[in-house]
Amino acid sequence: MQQTPHTHAASRAERPAFRGTRRRLAGVTAAVAAVVALSTLTGPGAHAADNPYERGPAPTESSIEALRGPYSVADTSVSSLAVTGFGGGTIYYPTSTSDGTFGAVVISPGFTAYESSIAWLGPRLASQGFVVFTIDTNTTLDQPASRGRQLLAALDYLTERSSVRGRVDSSRLGVMGHSMGGGGSLEAAKSRPSLQAAIPLTPWNTDKTWPEVSTPTLIVGADGDTIAPVSSHSEPFYSSLPSRTDRAYLELNNASHFTPNTSDTTIAKYSISWLKRFIDNDTRYEQFLCPLPRPSLTIEEYRGNCPHGS
User: Among 260, 209, 256, which Cα is nearest to 232's?
Assistant: First the structure.
């Protein structure tokens, strides 16, 4: 019994130390919680919060090679009689509005060709989270400079007058095109530096140098192209782009000038990755662009720089 007061006294003496220990533990716990919170914010689940333009689930090799992406797609025809500056076309768009607006891409066909020659790209790209406008040109004989102006006219129609303009973010736009349409996409990027992406497909143009282009540009050539041989078109086009510009050159293996006219997984895979990275600023797609893709059964050669800022 005589030890009881001593025990109590010892307990009272030790309490401040316990309190100090508890305070220190609380501080450590708070610090750990802060680190965990920070790592959560910078982890995969925080991309949408960091990047308001991100659309769709995290990509995989199979998701960007698939015939269709995660979005259901609808389309609407645009009569040539209802527009000025280009020949009408078809708009493909995600049916969902829950993710907000989408970036948009206009695609031009080549010399003597119609919209149908590049139509496969419409639903394939739109299902990945873009509004896509495949167009006809005023005449099938229009030259690249004219096609460049028509691409821009179609973008203006899409963002200002079209029935789906409310689904489009007019600050996030790109252009694509085949053959002379590909040459036209370079013309469009030269004329409108605010464009976020350009993808010329087996492009043709009498202008071989493009030092004025600052738009991130992916040029797709074909090793068997005899109409726009890569040695006199795609390769000099690519080489003339400023090194400070995000740029890449993809040469398709065992391919022809007309390979972009039918469904092609390699073209789709890298077009989706390029558009996602530069129109949506979605760094989740950098994994398909950097390190640079290596030669394969479908890739003869790939040149370029990893996206700046990555």
Answer: 209
Tokens of 239: 């080489």
Catalogue the active-site residues.
179, 225, 257
Residue 48: is its pLDDT beyond 60?
no
Range of the domain at 279: 62-304
| Angstrom distance (rounded) from CA 133 to CA 69 | 17
Dihedral angle over CA of 293, 43, 195, 242, nearest 10? -50
Residue 30 located in a structural domain: yes
Which of 237, 222, 226 shows the shortest CA–CA distance to 190?
A: 237
Strands 89-94 and 217-222: unpaired
Q: What is the pTM for the complete model shown?
A: 0.84
The pLDDT score that the predictor gives to residue 236 is 98
Note whether residue 52 is domain-resident: no
Residues 74, 34, single domain; the answer is: no
Beta bridge partners of 78: 89
Average pLDDT over all residues of the chain: 88
Structure tokens at 37: 């919170």
Q: Cβ of 116: how many Cβ atoms within 10 Å?
A: 12
The distance between the two most distant Cα atoms of the chain, rounded to a whole number of Å, is 111
In the chain, the number of structural domains is: 2
Mean pLDDT of 244-270: 98
